[in-house]
Amino acid sequence: MTRVTAAPASTDPGAAVTRGADAPRVTGRRRNTLRRQRLEILLFVTPALALMAIFVVYPVFSAARMSFYRWKGFGPMVDFVGLQNYLRVLADDVFTDAVVHNFTIVFASILVQLPLGLALALLLNRRIKARGLLRTIIFVPYVLAEVIAGVVWFQLLQPRTGLLERMLSSVGIPVPEQGFLGTPDLALATVFVVLTWKYLGLAVLLFLAGLQGVPDELHEAAQLDGASWWQVQRRIAVPLIAPTIRTWIFLSMIGSLQLFDMVWILTGGGPANATTTMATYLISQGTQRSNYGIAGAASVVLFLIGFAMAVAYQFLVLRRDTKADA
Amino acid sequence: MLCSSAVLLTVSACGSGGDSNASGGDENTITWWHNSNNEPGRGYYEQVAEDFEAANPGVNVEVEAVAHEDMVDRLEAAFQSGDLPDVYMERGGGELADHVEAGLVRNLSEDAAEEIEKLGGNVAGWQVDGETYALPFSVGVVGFWYNTALFEEAGITEAPATMAELSAAIEQLKAAGITPISVGAGDKWPAGHYWYYTALRACGQDVLEDSVTSLDFSDPCFVQAGEALQDLIETEPFNPGFLTTPAQEGATSASGLLATEQVAMELAGHWEPGVMQGLTEDNEGLGENTGWFPFPAIEGGEGDPEAQLGGGDAWAVSQNAPDTAVDLVKYLLSDEVQQGFAENDMGLPTNPAATDSVSDPALAQLLEVRDAAPYIQLYFDTAFGASVGGAMNDAIALMFAGQASPEDIVDATQQAADQEK
Q1: Domain residue spans in chain A?
Q2: Most exposed of A170, A211, B119, B270 (fewest Cβ within 10 Å)?
């Protein structure tokens, strides 16, 4: 691009005279390549932009528009209610609880999965027996389709008949009367355990990749200076993969805010709304109850929360990484 | 983002598939969607369409048999786009009222007056302001399906007729080491059915009819209904983990537990034997151990113990459909087609001429109960519409979790209803 746009000014002095009236003058062949390149760009970008517009931009705006109406999902959208849907969403205990559940998962993921993932990554980065096999085992849950993993865990966690309960009770560990998923106080924690099992692999994979980028010389130099294995990890390896960790936190945060599939399969948001998330609230109000206005308002709130957190994180945390690059 | 656009892609794919088949303005082509996508229903309806074409030369019926859940989704999309099939299924109540208000459904009161007359009280759920918008072809009632062998094992000789007798039966079953009842409270509506029934037993017919139109739940009988239900829940009769148990999917669902003899009974509609057959390896369900008794009476309740909770499916004609579509619906409710429908055990026929054609003993018993009932109350969540019904079901499910009082259910329902006014 820069080559082409720079060309006219330097090679064709006559252009300067007429520039005010006309576009930068270029020779016929150059103009052709320029046009061709623009056409090519247009050709390649249009399908992606069109898809983006149809499936991302348009739905976002249509949800925003929906949120100002009382609308059942069919017929013309005429019953304008202003901000009433937003007031109803924000005053709805089920929704505020859902927000709390989402943030519980956000923070629990960082507090539990980060240290666990880091520890496993450091371990698997050492030369131990069957390292490849262990890495695969850790990573397999992440590759499994979410729905399949959910159904498997749903069956494992069945009260009385599920494998997990039978294993626990056969070694004398008491199991809750209504099962792990059926007890309101335990349900969210149980969902979180399953989520950790599912997503730990991604954290470990990213951290391992980061660790492999740490130059061997640094390890050797530290060892020559008499640093222990722990000291090498703490002072050298972990600080050097900090950008990877920060990126992982970002991904994990966004994923936790959008949490839907696993919850939907394991509990459907129940028992007694103990595991609702903003996304399950959307489905239950929108497609299940035809309160599309309410669902629209809730989706705008979800969008704003996600957007605000993403922007804040970008500015406060990730900016360090981009600065370091530049 | 990726995930949501993938969902949208499939939805739009479904939508465009529907477009090509939906009413295209051709006066002689009728599109008909139904959910009997398994034999014998599928083949029977194909035959019905052919017979109709033969009797009406030049008319072409395009039949689409779709699995129930898919049909519901496709209809939802069709309502949004306004591009509906000519003949489709309506469940009645508030949902139908909304469709009528949006001008999507054709008024059949005059064109099918004769059929409406014949169907009698069965059409009540499909009337809006006295006008009939769809003709029900199958109406069933909800009651307790039970395992006669397990009842015998526990020493229960007679089906419980009052709530006190039900509690006694629950105690007997527990004493015999049998889990008394399974309920799919994870799906909420199965829990909802309990409250609907206690309300039906606690409230008089006039109170209920009034509440459906006025959306006013201030009558004390609604609180009484909650109290009766709370008493039942406190006897702890349900399967372990019932708060997240699904209604019908898989062997660990409420229906699956009854079918595999893990529990003694379940409150469910006329679909239950069919569902249980699908959930057992020998396709027998409970087989000859299948028993049924109506929901017990509440001591001191105003409601008629013979009244039943029920619902069903009706054929509706979309507003822009050709007139021959009305003829097809009338034909679908004719003695001949309803008899064939009954012979194939596809549901509980509404045309009295087909009553004797029902061969399945369990369904025949239900039909008797239904026709003896002074009135059939449409499932409340259907009657009130998805929005009020959903809020009501949520509150009832909370009571099952011990987190809502009888008053809370009434308050939550009233609050959602006030938003509709």
Answers
A1: 2-66, 84-325
A2: A170
User: What pLDDT, on the 0 to 100 scale, is given for residue B38?
Assistant: 78
Domain B143-308+379-420 has CATH 3.40.30.10: no
B93 near A CB under 8 A: no
Pick from B179, B147, B4: which is nearest to A56 by CA? B4
Given CB atoms, is B76 within the 8 Å cutoff of chain A?
Answer: yes
pLDDT digits (tens, 9 = 90+) for A62-71: 999 999 999 8
CA separation (Å) from B94 to A230, B199, B219, B333, B386? 67, 18, 21, 23, 7
CATH for B14-140+311-359 (3.90.79.10, 3.40.50.1980, 3.40.190.10, 3.30.479.30) = 3.40.190.10
Q: How many CB atoms lie within 10 A of CB A321?
A: 13
Q: What DSSP element (H or E) covers B275?
A: helix B272-279
Q: Mean pLDDT score of chain B, rounded to an integer?
A: 88
CB contact under 8 A, B244 and A51: no
User: How far is CA A181 from each of CA A202, A266, B253, B260, rounded to the nearest angstrom?
Assistant: 25, 7, 14, 22
- HEC string of A140-184 equals HHHHCCHHHHHHHHHHHCCCCCCHHHHHHHHCCCCCCCCCCCCCH
The answer to whether residue A289 neighbours chain B at the CB level (below 8 Å) is yes
DSSP B309-360: EEEEEEEEEBTTS-HHHHHHHHHHTSHHHHHHHHHTT-S-B-SGGGGGG---
Structure tokens at B350: 């509404």
Q: What is the pTM of this model?
A: 0.83
Q: Which residues in chain A (259-278) have CB-CB distances under 8 A to chain B?
A: 266-268, 270-273
Task: Name the closest residue on chain A to residue B386, using Cα atoms.
Answer: A289
Token reading at B376: 């059939």
Any A CB within 8 A of B13 CB: no
Pairwise CB contact (< 8 Å): B242 & A182: yes
The residue type of B95 is E
Classify the C-alpha dihedral B298-B303-B308-B313 as positive or negative.
negative
Q: Which residues of chain B have pLDDT under 70?
A: 1-26
Chain B residues lying within 8 Å of A187, measured CB to CB: 244
Check if A290 contacts B (Cβ < 8 Å): yes
- Give me the residue from B5, B79, B243 closest to A270, CB to CB: B243
A84-325 homologous superfamily? MetI-like (1.10.3720.10)
The ipTM (two decimal places) reads: 0.79
